[in-house]
Specification:
With 84 residues, this protein is an alpha+beta fold. It has helices at residues 13-23, 49-55, 57-67, and strands at 2-9, 26-33, 36-42, 72-79. Helix 1 runs antiparallel to helix 3. The two termini are 14 Å apart. The mean pLDDT is 80.
Length: 84
């Protein structure tokens, strides 16, 4: 498992999370603000991205409200390393 971090502006938060979910190899997404975890989204590996986006729509709505309040935050992503 690998971890990646992205520092982004609040206005880009929801779109970046949607993009990461579409990638499909994400186990968990954490939203950090000033070093503190604000929201943690566990994701099911192997779930179709479209179904997953629909299931977490309420979370994305809350994330949008949070994004309106902050100027910068960090997204920490746990990715599953696919062995070939």
């Amino acid at each position: 498992m690998s971890t990646e971090k992205y520092a982004i502006s609040g206005s880009q938060l929801v779109e970046k999370v949607k993009q990461l979910i579409r990638e499909g190899n994400i186990r968990r997404v954490r939203i950090l603000h000033e070093g503190r975890t604000v929201l943690e989204i566990p994701l099911t590996i192997g779930a179709p991205a479209a179904a997953l986006t629909i299931m977490i729509a309420p979370v994305l709505a809350a994330l949008g409200a949070f994004a309106a309040l902050v100027t910068e935050c960090t997204i920490e992503v746990e990715k599953v390393n696919e062995k070939k």
